[in-house]
Amino acid sequence: MRNPRRPPGRTVRQRFTALYGVLFLLSAVGLLAITNIVSLGSRVSSFGGNPPAGQPTLAAAQEHIALLQSRLSEMEAVQSRQLLIGSAVALAVMAVVSILLGRVVAGRVLRPLRTITAAARRISADNLHERLAVAGPADEVKDLADTIDGLLERLEGSFAAQRRFVANASHELRTPLATMRASLDVAVAKPEPVPAQTVALADRLRTELDQVDRLLEGFLVLARTQHGDLSDRATISLGRVVSTALATRADDIAGRSLTVHDGDVHDGAWTRGSRTLVSRMVENVIDNAIVHNHDGGWIRVAATADGATARLVVETGGRVLDQEQLALLAQPFQRLGADRTGSDTGSGLGLSIVAAVATAHGGGLDLRARPEGGLRVTVSLPSAAAQAGVPA
């Protein structure tokens, strides 16, 4: 960190003052030089005519004086016009020269700021340990770079503390949940007859504990994603992840008599990122399509690659939805409610996790209401088609 009481040095303000002062002086000198050259050229002229031979008479002398005065007036008018034209030309020339010189000088003066901007753009949550470390005189630019370095240092410490909190919360919060489940199992498994009300209460508590567990897991995944924890990077086949998610949920799909159209799931859609988070993202999209659907409905799934982008598209049928409300579903705890499908299940974290995972991998989530009814979910990720030969 810089010392706020650093000795006064050559500041950027002083350098700008000196540079622009010199440029202004040079422009003024050039303008005067061009004007004087034009003025001297206009003065080289001959009055012409010779005085009368012999002893001039008074009338002849007066006539010659009048002629000289007339010619002098003409020369002064011509000289004024030439001086005006020369001044205009000099002004135009020096204006162009000044703009070019100013652009060059401004580029050299602002070069450290461009360096700082490029370095700040390069530094992200994954490499907060990097610093600008701008060298140079102790001026305002150096102060700015040192201030940004201090900010990056504090951000790095904050991110590290948050990651430690997420890791500790994963253990500390799940332990009491497991203890409560075990206590319920012990209470219900006693040899003596257990009242029916107790069994029903235990079942309800287990259901609520499962919901809390899922909510906690969603919190942890969302926090991990937003903090950029992509430690298990790999090249992943998006099509294979989709096929695995559909196969795992075959019973849920069959239980609701849903028809799945997965003919557009191709193995050529590759991306690179965290295997765990990408799998969770795909599972959340599939789960959303299953849960928020109606019995006997349909799901259309596509995993394709188009140039530099790999896309996962999941569509479902249903009633016509409001596009403005859909824009809120990527935020935590936002749901359309039971009027969407007759179900109010879920924690409201599913699509927010999808959005966070996609953003962490350099992609995005797009939610669109289908004109004929239902929802179209599109997840875009950077493609890794060049590494398609690497097994996922």
Automatic annotation (TrEMBL):
<feature type="transmembrane region" description="Helical">
    <location>
        <begin position="83"/>
        <end position="106"/>
    </location>
</feature>
<dbReference type="InterPro" id="IPR050428">
    <property type="entry name" value="TCS_sensor_his_kinase"/>
</dbReference>
<dbReference type="InterPro" id="IPR005467">
    <property type="entry name" value="His_kinase_dom"/>
</dbReference>
<feature type="domain" description="HAMP">
    <location>
        <begin position="107"/>
        <end position="160"/>
    </location>
</feature>
<keyword id="KW-0808">Transferase</keyword>
<dbReference type="GO" id="GO:0000155">
    <property type="term" value="F:phosphorelay sensor kinase activity"/>
</dbReference>
<keyword id="KW-0597">Phosphoprotein</keyword>
<dbReference type="InterPro" id="IPR003661">
    <property type="entry name" value="HisK_dim/P_dom"/>
</dbReference>
<dbReference type="InterPro" id="IPR003660">
    <property type="entry name" value="HAMP_dom"/>
</dbReference>
<dbReference type="InterPro" id="IPR004358">
    <property type="entry name" value="Sig_transdc_His_kin-like_C"/>
</dbReference>
<protein>
    <recommendedName>
        <fullName>histidine kinase</fullName>
        <ecNumber>2.7.13.3</ecNumber>
    </recommendedName>
</protein>
<keyword id="KW-0902">Two-component regulatory system</keyword>
<dbReference type="Pfam" id="PF02518">
    <property type="entry name" value="HATPase_c"/>
</dbReference>
<keyword id="KW-0472">Membrane</keyword>
<dbReference type="GO" id="GO:0005886">
    <property type="term" value="C:plasma membrane"/>
</dbReference>
<dbReference type="Pfam" id="PF00512">
    <property type="entry name" value="HisKA"/>
</dbReference>
<dbReference type="Pfam" id="PF00672">
    <property type="entry name" value="HAMP"/>
</dbReference>
<dbReference type="InterPro" id="IPR036890">
    <property type="entry name" value="HATPase_C_sf"/>
</dbReference>
<dbReference type="InterPro" id="IPR003594">
    <property type="entry name" value="HATPase_dom"/>
</dbReference>
<keyword id="KW-1133">Transmembrane helix</keyword>
<feature type="transmembrane region" description="Helical">
    <location>
        <begin position="20"/>
        <end position="41"/>
    </location>
</feature>
<keyword id="KW-0418">Kinase</keyword>
<keyword id="KW-0812">Transmembrane</keyword>
<dbReference type="InterPro" id="IPR036097">
    <property type="entry name" value="HisK_dim/P_sf"/>
</dbReference>
<feature type="domain" description="Histidine kinase">
    <location>
        <begin position="168"/>
        <end position="385"/>
    </location>
</feature>
